[in-house]
Design goal:
about 300 residues; Double-stranded beta-helix; 7-stranded mixed sheet; 16 strands
Length: about 300
């Protein structure tokens, strides 16, 4: 009788989930803690350098899709090869950036505030997603801090929230625009489109790598915006990220060992200005980044 009552109480408080025999093989407790932060979650209690089961990896991937950004704490012992292994959970690794001599692997983009240690001024061209100049922008970006300075951060913003809170007139215009990359071979992407997995509205943008905008692509009234109109749109995008003193932003200041996994299609980002302060002022900053090849081209 006591055990029966205890079981009912646990069910009432959500501690036990009743499932069918067919479902039972898919139910497992989460082997790590998720702690909500302003954008996404901190993840504690798991070591990515250890061998993880397929079920745990599938759970992590699902959590990234749901929360858009996960910060795995205390991953100091993660090696470059293990960083790449984490990347492969999400797809094929794609490298399109300079191979710095200090990079431990061609597929690891090493950035720094010291040219002798890594590529500098990375992420300082404005708000963007990674790989917008490709037919299929990167699906995920994975950042591992190697050397933590006294200040400097990566700043993130949720794209769906920005789209859903646009002024109706601005949203109506953006819905008719396609961004044209400054790469000659770059494709034309709709500025607002549905995320291929969540179905939520997101943005394809890169404020530092946009040649211009096409309005009403494929229609009789199709036209390129003038330079003045293009600047107005770019300024309007920037405004949505910084208005209200950057209320939409999540500014991540790194602790040693932090590893961040982002859904690159759902989260815009830029490096804060202090990332390029000199080594003498803030100490050495070194970040390793891995990017995952895109699987979908943005479509209306």
């Amino acid at each position: 009788m006591f055990l029966s009552g205890l079981f009912k109480g646990l069910v009432a408080f959500g501690c036990v989930r009743i499932v069918s025999r067919e479902q039972s093989s898919f139910v497992m407790s989460r082997p790590y803690q998720l702690i909500p932060i302003k954008l996404g979650c901190e993840v504690r209690g798991i070591t990515l350098s250890g061998g993880l089961s397929d079920d745990v990896i599938a759970m992590i991937k699902k959590d990234v899709t749901q929360h858009r950004l996960l910060v795995f704490k205390n991953q100091e012992h993660l090696t470059p090869e293990q960083h790449l292994t984490v990347g492969r959970w999400f797809g094929d690794i794609e490298s399109t950036f300079y191979n710095h001599p200090k990079s431990p692997h061609r597929d690891i983009f090493r950035v720094s505030n010291d040219r002798s240690e890594g590529c500098t001024n990375v992420g300082r061209t404005g708000w963007h997603i990674d790989g917008s100049f490709q037919e299929a922008p990167f699906s995920h970006s994975i950042y591992h801090i190697i050397s933590v300075p006294t200040v400097s951060a990566t700043v993130f913003a949720p794209l769906t929230d920005i789209v859903e809170n646009l002024d109706p007139e601005k949203k109506a215009l953006w819905d008719r625009l396609w961004m044209v990359s400054d790469r000659r071979s770059g494709p034309k992407h709709p500025m607002i489109y549905k995320h291929p997995e969540s179905g939520k509205p997101v943005l394809c943008l890169h404020l530092g790598m946009t040649e211009g905008f096409l309005k009403d692509l494929g229609k009789k009234e199709q036209k390129y915006l003038t330079q003045e109109e293009t600047e107005e749109v770019l300024n309007g995008i920037h405004h949505e990220f910084v208005k209200n003193d950057g209320a939409i932003q999540y500014k991540h200041k790194y602790d040693p060992g932090d590893l961040i996994v982002t859904d690159n299609l759902a989260v815009g980002h830029e490096a804060s200005p202090d990332t390029q302060l000199s080594r003498e002022k803030i100490g050495l900053r070194v970040m390793h980044r891995v990017t995952i090849a895109g699987k979908f081209s943005p479509k209306k």
